[in-house]
Sequence to fold (728 residues):
Amino acid sequence: MMFEPFWKKMSDKYNVTIGGGDLMSYFSDGNNVCWFLEPELGAAIRRLHGVVGNAVTDDRYIVVGTGSSQLFQALLYAFTTPGGPEPVSVVSSAPYYSAYAEVVGFLRSELYKWEGDAYKFNKKGAYIEVVNSPNNPDGTLREAVVMNRTGNGNGKLIYDFAYYWPQFTAITGAADYDNMLFTISKCTGHAGSRIGWALVKDKDIAKKMTEYITISSIGVSKESQFRAAKIIEVVCNGTQNVGSVKSENFFEYGRKILSERWQKLRETIQNSEYLILSKYPQEHCLFSGKLVETLSAYAWLESKDNTKDCNEFLRGLKIIGKSGKICGAHQKFARVNLMCREEEFNQFIERLSATRGKGFINGH
Amino acid sequence: MMFEPFWKKMSDKYNVTIGGGDLMSYFSDGNNVCWFLEPELGAAIRRLHGVVGNAVTDDRYIVVGTGSSQLFQALLYAFTTPGGPEPVSVVSSAPYYSAYAEVVGFLRSELYKWEGDAYKFNKKGAYIEVVNSPNNPDGTLREAVVMNRTGNGNGKLIYDFAYYWPQFTAITGAADYDNMLFTISKCTGHAGSRIGWALVKDKDIAKKMTEYITISSIGVSKESQFRAAKIIEVVCNGTQNVGSVKSENFFEYGRKILSERWQKLRETIQNSEYLILSKYPQEHCLFSGKLVETLSAYAWLESKDNTKDCNEFLRGLKIIGKSGKICGAHQKFARVNLMCREEEFNQFIERLSATRGKGFINGH
Fold:
């Protein structure tokens, strides 16, 4: 909800109107591998990646999903069917996005199985590694690790680029991997639309993903696709100054807000007796032409005292966080979402400031 | 797409406009068990069932899904987690909607397992029976069968009421089961919106379903929910003559179109040497106050000659059908969708008429 003020201000410009007889069919484009993708959304996505320069879309199929969560599941299905006797291992470097573990495990599928931290994975045979860069929860830039560590070349890679947008990090090049996931939730902040997309090199994988989404939900909301296409188009116009003024560059706006939040957060933590925040490297951003730092969507807080449970500490301050434990990391870490509304962020800073001289509450 | 002309004619009245800053959050109502259900949609659904009289909504939780497919999976999950050593059997009376089998089987879950025809199911222990009434593909009215047949009282029941609307069948009472599924695809024809809903009696089941949808897609498109709420509200107004004229009663319109199609179809089949269509009973409809016949959304065609493959026969006439085999029935049956655009329906009738005196093409 961090970006909401931008959209509220610009609301009219991004209006969409849908008539009672519009968008009624299951089908969007029977000639496309992903037959439920609205062609306007496909075109908008290609344009967006071109404008931002964060991913290659040439020779890629676009598969749309109900959020990138559904596309992650579609890729698991595409990589593992028809299934063999053993479930395929799924890993990601800790700390990892805890939903990966949930999604892989919740239906007790015989096709795949969550095996946790990619740094601890030593099995032979097929595996799937998810690379999330910048990474949720800790904001680090990531590369695949299993192949380099163990030489196991039987891996399939999923690049989750939810946060590879200029407001969060330097765009250092157009990502050119075989299977890349994006979501409008993090790109523009329209989480309620549940629109994600995959850029997929292999046609058979794109077909299998489409099959997954067909079986699981018979496609993806046309209303959300229609609106996402509009929002992306106008974002591109604003970024390229097409019929817009400079103030309408969404990514600059996003970076400005996040940058202010990170400054406040670092100032607050700086003198903390209890918490640490790590620094992120600066890199040259091809999108802005500037040297920029990663501004993670989350604060990855660490207790100075290794024996302290960071999330418990936060809870004592009435701050809602997520324990490092459920991200495959130590309990001295906790994640706090920074993409909230301004009043919530200010409250977070206020409560965090209250730690000075107070010591651990609820605290061991 | 059968109902599209109605919506095109009325398009303006059913317009929705969404501003750039609207519907951005994951959350719709943090106090509701189903926290991603837009309150306006919940209210519209309760009003609709009241107006039509087809289901009880008192003391029921509403869970919204990305189509009723996702809700079916959410119910399977709710009924079977935490899982036991054996997958729970899932059955439905043949001929059944083939997607049930696909959805149950495609991830090779250890939680549940497709066991086919409820009439052939004789195992002890837990099971789930899906009752689809009127039934896809054959249009019959259905009740649960396993308990009556075998006395096995360990079953959970899912009532799929996708077609229990006045255009398709007599509304003979307000269904009052524990777990009932509906979808806007069949109710109003807005299949592209991917909006289904469940009416659920047990709070824990509603919570588990919500958990399923949270893990699998972090909620349901807000744009689709917003639009579905509007469409349902205006349908209710039209049905109740609130600020509308008689011609705006959608359900009467729907029944009229379907009734014309069935008449043409029966006339065409009447003298066929090759095909039969069964008759549906007439019942008193509490909604219209008339004696009405079921007008199935599908033609369930049967070859007069038991040895003939009905779908093969249709293919020879360039008619796209679905074989009875994949619905758990004999290959002498095939299903043809009647809810298509008018030109497609007329083409179907034309091609079907061409059978007279031609004999089986491609045909054994």
About this structure: The CA atoms of residues 34 and 210 of chain A lie 6 Å apart. Chain A touches chain B through 66 residues (CB under 8 Å). Chain A is about 35% helix and 20% strand.
